[in-house]
């Protein structure tokens, strides 16, 4: 049995006030179900629907609160998801702690046709979800009643503000309740139609967006502003999730304060030139912390863009902390003028299993000669790249290095990284880091990396180019495989940028020394020693005036290698490891036929005399050389 409001005098033509009729139907306790037949019913005074009451709407049935009039619904209702059941066109409102299972913006007048302004219907749906105390649990997370976006384009003309925590009590999960907005994929989109506007401004709240598109494509527009840099209050976005969300705008995320939040399987697209995907502004009271992005894709074809831009506050000693983690993300620029990472005065960024690629525009309107560095680091600490790929397509010798480091850089690590510069050229490639503006002597570490190129090789290729300059740098390199002609460019030299030079305080390890030399070689760095002749290797003294250190050498025997590792005291040669056909005389020429003879000569030289019977190629490498020997 139901109470039909027509039986209590309601006007289905929307001319006279039907508030008394609706209230009478609610007050009639013969039934807790109130039936709303087809028609428009004007509600001219405030009214409250009790929590034990249920409204059942016929197709094309609609309640229309007058201007300034509110309907507080604490019960539930039943209606078709596409029906417009609450008419808010003259300024009425719907509030309350409703008990429905899901909320559709269409109930409040949303069209979803990309033409009508759906701002008020969407805001009403969100407010009802936030104010409801009904929750569901999802993997340990507490969620509000979901706001459901159907496969439609919901156009809005101004900002949607979400600045209130959900009312639900969630001590059972230990987490804040997340406002759930759920769609059906990219076809369910909210689109801002406003120049330089912001689609969503969220702070002092927790949210969960799933399977939706969020667009702000008009010039200068921002998709989301997260948190609020308030000097007094901690207005952060906290414990929030974004799952399979498509962001598209000039700025995707403007981040002021965010904590304990995650982005899964999201797509970030910049819609115009000079845009930013994630812009982290300076914190004024506290810091961002524990933000995770997993399996997200970043792609742009516009010019002069930046995927991740972060700025800290150099005045406050703790004001530049950011805890951002990227796992399995793909960063692809389809413009040579786009930077992937631009970090200044921040710390704690981690990239794991990420791919970073710089390509040109598909229409050929830009050239690689105008390229910028993919990664820019200035005054940073705790930045790590693990099992990542970093590359540029169609590289040319005039393009900048892939990574630009400056200022104070500490605890910056590249581990298991494959870096490639691709393309055919004759001017030589420079790969990988330019640190010429760094003021720290130690702080960047390469561990088990492979730096390579594709395309025609050049005699000027530089595999690991760490900025030739005037200062000494203590680079930390471990098991790096740098394959090609100019294999190792390490630290600084006063000679030329193609010298193989020593580095301080850090060992350089080869997993298989013989195979490494024999397979890849050191074109341009080997010396051919004629049979019976002596080659004198002058020990470098740029760092250690006494010319003490550990050196590795290898002699090509046509069938293999004769190699060894020795310690030079500057006046004597001490054996560490020697091949069977190498004779060490210390500081005296051994003169043994059929072997490579080595000894320490005058002025800190290592002498190599070839008595094999034919000419042989020789390579000498400073294995470890530094302050420990001074």
From TrEMBL:
Keyword annotations from UniProtKB, A to Z: Lyase
Highest taxon above the source species: Bacteria
GO MF: lyase activity
Signal peptide interval: none
Keyword Lyase part of the UniProt annotation: yes
Ranges where the Rhamnogalacturonase A/B/Epimerase-like pectate lyase domain occurs: 4-58
InterPro entries: Pectin_lyas_fold, Pectin_lyase_fold/virulence, RHGA/B-epi-like_pectate_lyase
UniProt protein name: Pectate lyase superfamily protein
Organism: Paenibacillus uliginis N3/975
